[in-house]
Amino acid sequence: MCYGLIMAFWDELNGWYVEEARKFQEIPFVRRAFAGGLTRPEYVHFLKDYYHFVRSAGPVYSACAAKIDYRFARVRDWFAKCAFKEIDHDRFVVSDLKALGIPEAETRQSRPGTAMDALCCYNFGFIEQHHPVGLLGTPFLMGKLSAVYSLHASQKIKEALNLKEGGASFFEAHGHLDREQPEDVGLVIQSIAETDMQAEIFLNAKTLFALYVGFLRSLSD
């Protein structure tokens, strides 16, 4: 019965993602990116803001692992490994912006826009106000989006902006690096039988997605 409840939750979570992914593709910024219609200033704006989200991933995963007790040792260890893997991933964004003419110091000294600031701050607040196991909703969501869309986005952006050397390394790298993440995080999520923890995972995924959509829509304002 426990296994059946776990799989019912897993099916519900994936069903939610499939429905939201359809809406994701209709966001104006996303639609233009996939159609090869982004301008260089639009892409630079996106990367300068997204740099802050990438930079926050390792610290938030590390903080999350530190708050998870022995009852969820598998989840704790998984987040600790993810935190280590995320080290220096922001260099991809810095490199892409340098290829687009933005000095490294300008990127690293920049401040996120309002929508991105809310997105970056959300997960730090989540692990303080909710059970940290719920943060599994974030790698579930972002891993799926990256595995499905990153390589396609990088190709379209390179074509649209005539990028011969550099400029799309973040999407290219993560299109390959994240191929196994959905299955990896899926196995961890399927080890969670407690319905209250499942509810936290769902809440985290839904809220993060709403904030991410808000950020992407802000790029068209």
Structure explained in plain terms:
With 221 residues, the chain is mainly α. It has one domain (2-218): Heme oxygenase-like (Heme Oxygenase, Chain A), CATH 1.20.910. 76% of the residues lie in helices and 0% in strands. It has eleven helices and no strands. The chain has helices at residues 2-24, 28-34, 40-67, 73-85, 90-99, 104-108, 114-129, 137-161, 169-177, 181-189, 195-218. Helix 3 runs antiparallel to helix 4, helix 3 runs parallel beside helix 7 and helix 8 (137-161) runs parallel beside helix 11 (195-218). The protein is globular. The chain starts with a helix and ends with a helix. The mean pLDDT is 91.
Listing every helix as H and every strand as E from the N terminus to the C terminus, the arrangement reads: HHHHHHHHHHH
Major beta sheet, specifics? none
In total, the number of strands is: 0
Q: What is the CATH C level class, in words? A: Mainly Alpha
- In the CATH hierarchy, the third-tier topology is known as Heme Oxygenase, Chain A
Radius of gyration: 17 Å
Bin the helical content: over 70%
The CATH homologous superfamily is called: Heme oxygenase-like
Distance between the termini: 49 Å
Question: Which architecture name does CATH use?
Answer: Up-down Bundle
Q: Please report the number of helical segments.
A: 11
User: What does the overall shape look like?
Assistant: globular
Number of separate structural domains: 1
Provide the residue-averaged pLDDT.
91
What are the segments in which pLDDT stays under 50 over at least 5 consecutive residues? none
Beta-strand content bin: under 5%
Structural class comes to mainly alpha
